[in-house]
């Protein structure tokens, strides 16, 4: 039984289609399809229901998937362990990370790491959506947000302070809000994946949610930053995005007597799956590169001790 056939089946099961599995494996669709057919022939069982919409596993396929996944992970871990015994980090590593954070900060930190460890085969998928690390086969998921209870084990990489920002032009036209009550009447620029309930603050009276008027909803932080700089409204942005514009004076920080909910940049991995030395080393690399406090907070007119 060939390992590439088992790997193709696992990729198909995780991706939900042969086309997506082929993309992830960087193979042609016909090759992946042939490997699945050969595996089914070798096993004497149909593993996948084929339809024009989405593939689904047969009962045999679901049973085989669990055992095959464990076996393949075990083999990968064994190969990685031997490499680590020789002082080498090697083998596949599949991560999911946010688009903007990676473009601005994760990428520049990762490139030297990958040069130092050329035997690591990193697959980095950029996506801001919530992903199921276990079901989608990720070794780790890097995200930005509050660290709440989760079936994943999370390692903190850096704190991530968010601030309210707007352009001088917008504040001159609409006034600068001084408290949460005044903020309520302003135009907001919201991140689509978080929704209109994103403006949550920790005040002396407890947790407060503010629902401003919708000026723009968009699923990209850099577009939010540019929209705020263009005077379209107030945005709540992490300093890893807004920092350069705050230092340049393009955006102004708005103080309303309350702090947004505490958030962090973290890497999470499926609970129960032993994290590899590769993932631990990568996390340590990012933690060192970001610093404590993180370098993007410097000069943003915000007291990082708060």
Automatic annotation (TrEMBL):
Organism: Ancylobacter tetraedralis
CDD domains (alphabetical): PBP2_CrgA_like
One Pfam family from the record: LysR_substrate
UniProt entry keywords in alphabetical sequence: DNA-binding, Transcription, Transcription regulation
SUPFAM superfamilies: Periplasmic binding protein-like II, Winged helix' DNA-binding domain
Ranges of residues in domain HTH lysR-type: 1-58
Family: Belongs to the LysR transcriptional regulatory family.
Any one Gene Ontology molecular-function term assigned to this protein's record: DNA-binding transcription factor activity
Flavoprotein found in the keyword field: no
Protein name per UniProt: DNA-binding transcriptional LysR family regulator
GO biological process: DNA-templated transcription
């Amino acid at each position: 039984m060939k390992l590439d056939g088992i790997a193709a089946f696992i990729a198909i099961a995780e991706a939900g289609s042969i086309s997506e599995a082929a993309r992830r494996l960087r193979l042609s669709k016909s090759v992946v399809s042939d490997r699945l057919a050969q595996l089914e022939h070798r096993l004497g069982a149909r593993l996948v229901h084929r339809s024009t919409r989405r593939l689904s596993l047969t009962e045999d396929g679901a049973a085989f998937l669990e055992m095959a996944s464990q076996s393949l992970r075990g083999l990968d871990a064994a190969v990685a362990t031997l490499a680590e015994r020789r002082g080498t980090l090697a083998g596949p590593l599949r991560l999911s990370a946010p688009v903007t954070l990676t473009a601005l900060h994760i990428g520049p930190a990762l490139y030297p790491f990958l040069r130092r460890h050329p035997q690591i085969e990193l697959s980095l998928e950029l996506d801001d959506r919530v992903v199921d690390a276990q079901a989608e086969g990720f070794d780790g998921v890097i995200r930005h947000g509050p660290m709440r209870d989760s079936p994943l084990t999370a390692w903190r990489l850096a704190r991530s302070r968010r601030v309210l920002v707007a352009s001088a032009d917008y504040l001159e036209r609409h006034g600068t809000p001084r408290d949460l009550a005044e903020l309520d009447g302003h135009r907001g620029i919201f991140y689509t994946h978080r929704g209109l309930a994103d403006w949550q603050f920790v005040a002396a009276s407890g947790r407060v949610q503010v629902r401003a008027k919708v000026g723009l909803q968009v699923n990209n932080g850099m577009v939010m930053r540019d929209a705020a700089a263009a005077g379209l409204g107030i945005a709540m942005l992490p300093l890893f995005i807004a920092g350069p514009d705050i230092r340049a004076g393009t955006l102004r920080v708005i103080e309303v007597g309350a702090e947004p909910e505490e958030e962090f940049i973290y890497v999470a991995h499926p609970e129960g799956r032993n994290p590899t030395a590769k993932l631990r080393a990568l996390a340590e690399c990012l933690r060192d590169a970001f610093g404590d406090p993180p370098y993007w907070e410097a000069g943003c007119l915000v007291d990082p001790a708060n």
